[in-house]
Amino acid sequence: MGPAGCFASDKKRKGVILSMYVGERLMLEGNTISEHRHGISVSVFLALAFLATATWAVDKRIVVDSAGRRIEVPAKIERVFAAGGPASVFLYTLAPEKLLGWTSPLTAEERAYIPAPYARLPTLGRLTGRGNTTNVEVVLASRPDVILDYGTINPTYISLAERIQKQTGVPYLLFDGAFDQIATTYRSAGAALGVSDSAEQLSRYTERLLADVDKRLARIPAKSRPLVYYARGPRGLQTGLKGSINVESIERIGARNVAAERIGQGSLVSVSPEQVLMWNPQIVITIESAFATVAGSDEIWKSVIAVRSGHVYTAPTLPFPWLDSPPSVNRLIGLKWLGRVLYPELFTDDLRAETRTFYGLFYHKVPDEQQLNELLSGPGRSR
């Protein structure tokens, strides 16, 4: 038996053994008892064989994932391998007790915002993304009931899921990570994992937040929305084009993505300081504190109107960045922060209270006052 055989459930094994036992008894009895008794034995065999098959059947069920794939999974899912960074955050918010490990090591600062049992989970690496950091052997050694990925759904990720599922024998589920699908995805993933109550709470919060954001944005004319550059990397020279999941929250809050307006549709792209200077955005957003320092000292960056006017803003990053890296459900709280930065006259909420609520519900730990100070020491402040 190959490694995938290890995942057969106890019920399934018992069903097979029971069928074999009944069959053996039937053969023995057929040679030693009357035709009448033999007929009874056949009936008993058929009944017990049916029960064994039924036991096997109820141990499995079919789940339809976001790619429309019909996947057979265990009736009860206890152990889940997160395929990538977005999946690990999504799964942690939904069912932390099922998460087998993180895709990358948590820093001491990140662990402080996560309950100890989950902060101590091992690092297992990722199957997806640029330069995957794990392999089939690690997946098998962790004994997952299913593998779960969360993010972009396209032929590349579907092909990867099919290949890994075939190699490991472990069901591989794909769930849509698009911003406007978060509430729906929580419900479908919650049903798949058997945590529908938790999923419903997270879905309702998401729906309320997005509805509130949309209601406020409706009051802002398109021409009044700021021209924004999203600076990724320590030098701020990587950004996302229109439709990139990495800038989805910036576009969702109604800002004009300058790279999208100048280049168009796409994913991540590298640019030069001269390009940014030519685009001359009104506001620069980043999650890189190192870049904020560079922007204030580099001669070209200092000529960009956003830098010159002090409109470079660094989003909170603990335990997961509020805007990106990974582009998962951690971006929800980032919408409220972005609202404060881009439309301070409309987003006047108590961000401190919102952060407590979000962290308690999604991260399973409410930050203390010192942590709130660290997170929100001047939200929207130019660095």
Task: Sum up the structure in keywords.
17 helices, disordered C terminus, 3 domains, 383 residues, Rossmann fold, alpha/beta, globular, 4-stranded parallel beta sheet, 3-stranded parallel beta sheet, 46% helix, single chain
Mind sketching the topology for me?
Elements: H1 10-30, H2 35-58, E1 60-64, E2 70-74, E3 80-82, H3 85-94, H4 108-111, H5 116-119, H6 136-141, E4 146-151, H7 155-168, E5 172-176, H8 182-193, H9 196-217, E6 227-231, E7 238-240, H10 248-252, E8 256-257, H11 258-262, E9 268-270, H12 273-279, E10 283-286, H13 289-297, H14 305-308, E11 312-314, H15 331-342, H16 351-362, H17 369-375
Helix pairs in contact: 1-2, 8-9
Structure description:
Strand 4, helix 7 and strand 5 (172-176) form a beta-alpha-beta unit. The chain has 3 domains: 3-58; 62-214, Nitrogenase molybdenum iron protein domain (Rossmann fold); 222-375, Nitrogenase molybdenum iron protein domain (Rossmann fold, 3-Layer(aba) Sandwich), CATH 3.40.50.1980. It has 383 residues and is α/β, with parallel strands linked by helices. Mean pLDDT is 87; it is low at 1-40, 51-56 and 379-383. It has helices at 10-30, 35-58, 85-94, 108-111, 116-119, 136-141, 155-168, 182-193, 196-217, 248-252, 258-262, 273-279, 289-297, 305-308, 331-342, 351-362, 369-375, and strands spanning 60-64, 70-74, 80-82, 146-151, 172-176, 227-231, 238-240, 256-257, 268-270, 283-286, 312-314.
